[in-house]
Amino acid sequence: MPLDIPPDTTTTGEEFFRTEGVYTGLGAPIPGGRIDRWILSEGPHIESHVELFDELCWRLLVEDFRILHGSGATDEYLRSPIRATIERGTPFRRRLDAEIPEYPLLEKLRKAGATDYFALALNRPLNGYPVVTWATDRPRGFSDADIAALEEINPALAAVVETRVVRRISTNLLDTYFGPQAGRRILAGQIRQGEGERLRAVVMMTDLRDFTGLSDRLSGDEVITLLDDYFDALATPIQERTGEVLKFMGDGMLAIFPAEDDDDFSTSSVRALEAATEGLERLDAVNKVRRAAGRSELRTGIGLHLGEVIFGNVGAPGRLDFTVIGPAVNLASRIEGLTKRLLRPMLFSSAFARICPRPLVSLGFQPVRGLDEPEEVFGLPE
């Protein structure tokens, strides 16, 4: 049944788990039939949370936001009216007739004209409860029938939102551990051993110098901090330029920069070069801090190459790794290895140099382990 909310009423729904912005929707009443049936039948097919709530309500302001890691200690969260609902699943309702200094959010809603506020917990997928909240500007607030109707549709709404939350968490985890491209492929079901696709990409390989010696001299905690600082310096500019970090291999890192057009890799090469350059600059900043603290500095080598790779699953049936393999990856690794002998922090293959519009200088033909013929290697102008 439709909610008993007249056209001049403003209703607010919030999901307390992710920030995406503010949306105001003006929609028509939901077609006849029970709202909970509509939620379960049509809700899963609606793309976004905002659209779901827009279809659910006559007039609606939706705020979809998340609590970042560590935000539980902030004043904003500690004074949130739905803190107990998030943590324990306890419903919360408050009339907004008078000032409410203990709840800044409710005071803000009151000043905007809201008269009543109601929060309900949805299903608990992990540690905290997603919460949906409702507010109205009707002078008499929510009626008993309004509250009963909101409670009646809550199980159906919880079922739909739970699948969305779980999928969002799964997507975020896969993106974090495998990268966006690999994460999307895994989530889409590309999980069979030996399944993959061929693609051309700029391949970047990095390696931390003297890691064995550093790890022998430092404690375990210091080694972890060192690697975090190192990978953060190099990976951040890669991700900011739409590159994809595929693997951390001890003290090494593998990343790729695909291109939308296989015939034009000039843009990808520039993005890769800029990411590598900024990574070295960030590492210099890390070393400045380490020097001031009396710690060993970090040095790295970076190799860049353009070639064809196989992007897909490698491993055993019960344990797969989604990565890129192929001769192009091997050559990028060999090019990186030459940085030690040529005393350069960054080197490029001839294939990379041919498509990169930035000026590079030839360092001659160098013997490369595993190749019958020497490879012409390039560096930045000095």
Describe the sheet with the most strands. Answer: 8 strands, mixed
Q: Which range best describes the helical content: under 10%, 10-25%, 25-40%, 40-55%, 55-70% or over 70%?
A: 40-55%
Work out the radius of gyration.
27 Å
Shape category:
elongated
Helices and strands, in order, run as EEHHEHHEHEEHHEHHEEHEEHEHEE
Q: For this entry, what is the oligomeric state of its chains? A: single chain
What is the average per-residue confidence, as pLDDT, rounded to a whole number?
78
Your description of this structure?
There is one protein chain. It contains twelve helices and 14 strands. By secondary structure, it is α+β, with helices and mostly antiparallel strands. The strands form three sheets. Strands 7, 8, 9, 10, 11, 12, 13 and 14 form an eight-stranded mixed β-sheet that branches. β10 and β11 form a beta hairpin. It is elongated, with a radius of gyration of 27 Å. It starts with 10 loop residues before the first strand and ends with a strand.
Main features:
single chain; eight-stranded mixed β-sheet; three-stranded mixed β-sheet; 12 helices; 40% helix; 26% strand; disordered N terminus
Question: Concise description?
Answer:
The protein is of the alpha+beta class and 382 residues long. It has 12 helices and 14 strands.
Topology of helices and strands:
Elements: E1 11-16, E2 21-26, H1 35-42, H2 49-56, E3 59-65, H3 75-78, H4 83-88, E4 92-95, H5 104-111, E5 116-121, E6 131-136, H6 144-178, H7 180-187, E7 196-208, H8 211-217, H9 220-240, E8 244-249, E9 252-258, H10 266-292, E10 300-316, E11 319-325, H11 327-342, E12 346-349, H12 350-355, E13 361-366, E14 375-379
Parallel strand pairs: 1-3, 10-12
Antiparallel strand pairs: 2-3, 4-5, 5-6, 7-9, 7-10, 8-9, 10-11, 12-14, 13-14
